[in-house]
Amino acid sequence: MRQERATRTRRTLLDAAAGVFDRDGYEGASLTRVAQAADTSLGALTFHFASKEHLAREVGEQGCATTRAALTDLPAHPVSSLDWLAPYTLALTGLLDRDPAVRAAARLTRELLWTAPNWYAAWQPALRERLADVSPAELPPGADPSTLTALAAHLVAGAETWARHQAYHPDAREQGCLSSTEDVARILRLVLDSGPAGAHPTGVRRG
Question: Domain containing 106: what range?
């Protein structure tokens, strides 16, 4: 019973910390603010996490683990390697839209100068490796695998910022703004539908 209670407390603290790191960043976060968000005492927090650095690392690990788990659910062997780009990118932006821990992991990676746990390292190598197998005949005019990898990385980075804005600024949704995933889907259609493989080669449908 005591172990279960400790596990629940730790889970609550990590969830609260994810929200604080996501919204305020590493420098803006404090253990006191996390304890307040978790509705617990500072002593209870430091019993589980001795420092802000320790807490940030645990949140980053959580975000990376969630990301890796979500990406393993994607089809392993699409007809074309290029067909993997849009679902992969949209899976990442979907996580950023929904999960504060994933957004926090992305933000902490940038703010802590890419030290471990590195959120981008949880997904970029697999994308780069898969796109390296794309046949030149499949590529949109003027594109190459490194350019498409960079495209995905920039779209994901932008999606992180927009998803955070929507999470903490209710006026964004009230004004009818699209989610970051919806925006990224439209951009991918624009770029990839021009490819020689035919209409909608990645399966991103027109809305």
Answer: 58-192
Q: Is residue 176 part of a domain?
A: yes
How many structural domains compose the chain?
1
Beta carbons within 8 Å of 170's beta carbon, 6+ residues apart: none
Amino acid at 197: A
Q: Is residue 179 part of a domain?
A: yes
Whether residue 201 is contained in a domain is answered as no
Residue 42 lies in a domain: no
pLDDT tens figures, 165-203 = 988 887 766 666 778 899 899 988 887 775 544 434 444
pTM: 0.85
| Letter string b/e over residues 125-144, b meaning 16 or more CB atoms within 10 A of that residue's CB | eebbebbeebeeebbbeebe
User: Each residue of 149-164: pLDDT tens digit?
Assistant: 899 999 999 999 999 9
Residues 161 and 164: their CA atoms lie apart, in Å, by 5
